[in-house]
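TA notes, week 10

Several of you asked for a full example with nothing omitted. So below is the full record: structure tokens for the whole chain, then the designed sequence directly under it. When grading your own attempts, check the secondary structure regions first.
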């Protein structure tokens, strides 16, 4: 069983009635609700001790999901370093929507991760541009969301290892809305949907993509190599030692 931890800053839902109507128990609880059909799921939020991300929690986490927006700067650098170390060791990371500006994503990318945005109730069509990839299994040609926040190019990220989705918005912009990266032994997936006032995490195909991504970026038996001084596998001549 894959162990998933869903991390949410959990601030909009407490302060904004419009957001609370969409996610009454928080975005993390909605993510947990559908993910627990297939995985062992914990949640963690910003205001918990160590943001809910103790060494023990992270060591038991195969895949961490991150949603943040207005409080990126409140995430302690020591916790970001802890998550970063776990990703390099092999923990999978799924970065959702406005977490493009989270400290952990920016640290892993090494760029500003900035983009264009607009909240205008626009239709969004998320095109599958990598049909053989496991993340899009069962998704079809595209996902259509009646409303999503526009995120537009240029998105200041390193060239993705694999481009999975290109989003189109009614206003005319396009966006690399699904991207994979490898950092160290860890696999990372960025996925655009999930603005806090729209019901994107209730959409069956959005849910399906996140489930596929968890399976794709969870560690395998080969994820944890041995580093450091090594004994030779063959007998070496004395002068080579
Ligand atoms: Zn948003």
């Amino acid at each position: 069983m894959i162990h998933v931890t869903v991390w949410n800053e959990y601030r909009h839902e407490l302060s904004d009635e419009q957001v609370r109507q969409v996610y009454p128990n928080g975005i993390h609880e909605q993510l947990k609700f559908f993910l627990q059909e297939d995985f062992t799921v914990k949640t963690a939020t910003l205001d918990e001790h160590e943001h809910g991300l103790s060494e023990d929690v992270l060591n038991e986490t195969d895949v961490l999901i991150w949603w943040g927006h207005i409080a990126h700067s409140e995430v302690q650098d020591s916790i970001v370093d802890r998550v970063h170390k776990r990703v390099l060791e092999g923990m999978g990371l799924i970065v959702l929507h406005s977490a493009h500006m989270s400290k952990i994503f920016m640290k892993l990318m090494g760029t500003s991760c900035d983009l264009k945005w607009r909240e205008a109730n626009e239709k969004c069509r998320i095109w599958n541009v990598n049909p053989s990839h496991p993340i899009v299994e069962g998704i079809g040609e595209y996902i259509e969301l009646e409303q999503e926040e526009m995120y537009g190019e240029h998105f200041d990220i390193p060239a993705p290892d694999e481009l999975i989705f290109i989003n189109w918005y009614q206003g005319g912009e396009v966006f690399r809305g699904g991207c994979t990266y490898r950092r160290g032994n860890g696999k990372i997936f960025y996925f655009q949907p999930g603005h806090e006032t729209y019901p994107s995490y209730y959409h069956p195909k959005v849910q399906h993509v996140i489930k596929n991504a968890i399976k794709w970026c969870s560690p395998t038996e080969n994820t944890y190599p041995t580093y450091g001084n090594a004994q030779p596998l063959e007998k070496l001549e004395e002068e080579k030692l």
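The pocket of zinc ion is lined by residues 97-98, 149, 195 (CB under 6 Å). Use that as a sanity check on your answer.
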